[in-house]
Amino acid sequence: MTRLPDFHAAKWDEPVIYEIGRQGARGQIFDAPEKRVADAVGTDLIPHAMSRKDTPDLPEITEFEAQRHFLHLSQMTLGMMGISLFGTCTMKYNSKAAEFATLRPELAEVHPFQHPDTLQGVLEIIHDFDGILQNLSGMDQFIFQAGGGADAAYTMATVARAYWADKGMLGQRTEMVTSVQAHPCNPATAAAAGFDVVNLPLEENGYPYLEALKAAVSEKTALIMINNPDDMGIYNPEIKEWTRIAKEAGALCFYDHANFNGVMGKLSARELGFDACMFMLHKTFGAPKAGGGPAVGAFGCTAQLAPYVPGPVVVKEGDSYILDEDRSKSTGKVREYWGNVPQVVKAYAWARAMGAEGINLASDISVVANNYMDKKLAEIPGLEISNPDNGAWRMEMTRWSLGPLTEETGVSTVHFANRMADYGIDPYWMSHEPWIVAEPFTPEAGELWSKEDIDTWIAVIAKIAKEARENPDMVKSAPHNQPVAQAKGDAFEDPAKWAMTWRAYQRKVIGDETKKGVA
Amino acid sequence: MRIGLVVNPVAGMGGAVGLKGTDGPGIVEEARSRGAVERAGPRTREALALLAARVPGAELIVAPGALGADWADGLALSFPPIEMPLLTGTARDTKTAVAAMGDVDLIVFTGGDGTARDVAGTAEGTPILGIPAGVKMHSGVFAVTPRAAGALIADLLNAPDRIRWRDAEIMDIDEVALRTGTISPRLYGMARTPTSGGLMQAAKGGPPPDAEGAVKGAAKSIAGAMEPDVLYIVGPGRSAGAVIAAAGHEPTLLGVDALLNGEVVARDATARDLHTLMDTHPVRVIVGVTGHQGFVLGRGNQQIDPDVLRRAGPDGLTIIASPEKLSSLAAPRLLVDTGDAALDAEFSGFHRVATGPGRMTMMRLSSE
């Protein structure tokens, strides 16, 4: 019998960091330099024109107070170290060893504008990691400029645009074909790059008919963009036919490898017929995630498309590594410099620590764990697996529905997720838009969690399903063991209300018009 | 929220005994004599039982006797009696009951398309929701099952933030003609109806999709790509009408309009009007999709007859619908029923549906 967590979050009713502390408080106070040092440095260490005229508006607190404040915040937000079977995100432990590697001065103290001769170590890592990803995909060139998966999808859209423009066919090849279940970034980025989007609907087996693809592709198709497996956890066994049909129509084929975890080491994008693919280093390759910030979408392609990728590209010449910027057919940058290099180093550290066999095994474990989870979830009344008629094993995640439970009790998947936090379990991921199944949730068991962790997670799901029948109002008004009750989501839809920074808060909420900025 | 309930107790009785419906005098007796059993009442009770379990003590304004109260009897619901004249056993009862409810925010009815017409026609402007019990249910105001209707009413009372409101078609087929083998469905109007929208998650999500904006964007693309000297025949309904609006004109929502060189050359046109116009120009047809069933040809747009469709051909057919409407279809396909099997076959297969500016979805068209 799995023991349910008896949990209550801490509540620290304390102001935001800007409102605590006192004038003059500092983390560290240093003595003024000795005269000998001051004389040697001179008074113009920072040129006059470059030094700021005002003092920065920063919180003034001691180091101890800053540590305490952020510890309290993490205590109020489940700390990101709980059991979180958060599907589509491939939650992994971000090892301290990889973190320490990025703190070394060889990386922490370099700048991309340094002469490449002084950057050989980090360039070697980028070059070698490119090689590792080539081995996992069959592609000929990887770049790491994109700041996330969607940015890598956008890279593909711009590479396709540059490719067709170079062929003089951009006026004819105006369409991108994808499935309604592909990640929304695929249609969105193709549209942003100027392509019209053709969606294919899903059939009962969970993926579109080949006939739909055949009817959709034509001499107008510039590219297809597709996930496999998708977020239902269903692997489309006809994928080779897909690339064959698309290629026959002359289109480029892009493999969105966001859901790589269940197939890593098992297949090659190249062998399946794809011209390009992308990996998310902050998911599959063990580097940390952070909302739109230091993520990396590694974009890879065949030699045919390589001339069009954003530069610079790290190239090995003889014994040294250079930054090749002289690329006349390049689509141009999607982001500055060479990407979030510390993330690349962390992913490299992960891949080297795992090794080819370890990567292969992790993939097996993630699929086995997920199917164990599916079997246990199927025993809970009120839950329903997506596409129940598709008898194939699911891959590393599975889309489930709370539809029957919601109809019976009125408890929705949003209510359910809120209640999970009362057990110290991170609320699950529901689904990308559009919601194809009613009241969706998408767990992903992954290779990180122990069987005990997965059992605990399932026990919490079973308990909340029971609570929904016995006391639906209690579930609907959850969370009860958290410092903040239900947040009103409508603020996120109104740019006039949301405030991501202290400055924006002062302007939008307090009404201080002198505080400029966007967020 | 004040919710009224009226049941058409004989709805659906004709179906199982081959009578296509129960509209018209003498048909109910005929259905009974053929062994039909009442199904509207039990289906109403199914919906109400779920409502009572979810929202004990919920208050409804319920029509008397077999028109409502009989089916709520004994459930944990509160339904003060309403005053109305004696029952006549005809469609007049539905209308009288709706009138007797007074001011309500939503009328729940049990029946089919005929009942939907009666209810919407009497309480014009009031939102309606159908508990499905009819033989024909081409209108877009029906919940998928009686239990789903019960859950929706419970959400309306308990969690109104889960509800989205949309405009749906009120459609009906002339049953007298249908019994002789002729199908002539018509679009009678639009009614506001609730639908279970679900709550959206904030993380990784973004604002909910804007169905109306998507259709407007698609309509603008279609209108912008119109060619000179081509006759555009634009079908009834809000989505197709958005194309007329994008071209700068007021659409005839319930009828078919025709555009030529940016000008409206026919309003609420008949098949004969269209035949005359298409003599001199190439023809393209623009239609929407009926909610739930997903008809594109042969329901509510018979003016666009086989002759018009043969002239346009499958390549000359443009379909426009919001992604939301496509994803809420009972099955992932669209239906054609032109009355000409060979023509149906010609239009069958995958076809593009415009769902937004520069956005299309491939949908299978079939006649079954």
Number of discrete domains of chain B? 2
Assembly of the depicted chains: heterodimer
Unreliable stretches of chain A? none
Structural class of chain A: alpha/beta
Roughly what is the average pLDDT of chain A, rounded to an integer? 93
Radius of gyration of chain A: 25 Å
Strand tally of chain B: 17
Tally the helices of chain B: what do you get? 13
Put simply, the count of helices of chain A is 15
> How does the overall form of chain A come out from the CA principal axes?
globular
- Which parts of chain B are unreliable, with pLDDT below 50 for 5 consecutive residues or more? 202-206
For the record, the count of structural domains of chain A works out to 4
CATH architecture of the largest domain in chain A: 3-Layer(aba) Sandwich
Intertermini distance of chain A: 48 Å
Task: Give the averaged pLDDT of chain B, no decimals.
Answer: 86
Largest sheet of chain A: 7 strands, mixed
List the helices and strands and how they pair.
The complex is a heterodimer of chains A (519) and B (368).
Chain A: H1 35-41, H2 63-75, H3 96-103, H4 105-108, H5 120-137, E1 141-146, H6 149-166, E2 175-179, H7 185-192, E3 196-200, H8 210-216, E4 221-227, H9 239-248, E5 252-256, E6 276-280, E7 297-301, E8 313-317, E9 320-324, H10 341-377, E10 384-385, E11 400-401, H11 403-409, H12 413-420, E12 440-441, H13 451-470, H14 472-476, H15 502-510
Parallel strand pairs in A: 2-3, 2-4, 4-5, 5-6
Antiparallel strand pairs in A: 1-7, 6-7, 8-9, 10-11, 11-12
Chain B: E1 3-7, H1 27-33, H2 40-54, E2 58-59, E3 61-62, H3 69-72, E4 77-78, H4 91-100, E5 106-111, H5 113-122, E6 128-132, H6 146-158, E7 163-173, H7 175-179, E8 185-196, H8 211-224, E9 231-234, H9 238-246, E10 257-260, E11 263-266, H10 271-278, E12 283-287, E13 295-297, H11 306-312, E14 317-320, H12 323-327, E15 333-336, H13 341-347, E16 349-356, E17 359-366
Parallel strand pairs in B: 1-3, 1-5, 2-4, 5-6, 9-12, 12-14, 13-15, 14-16, 15-17
Antiparallel strand pairs in B: 7-8, 9-10, 10-11, 16-17
Helix pairs in contact in B: 2-6, 4-5, 8-9
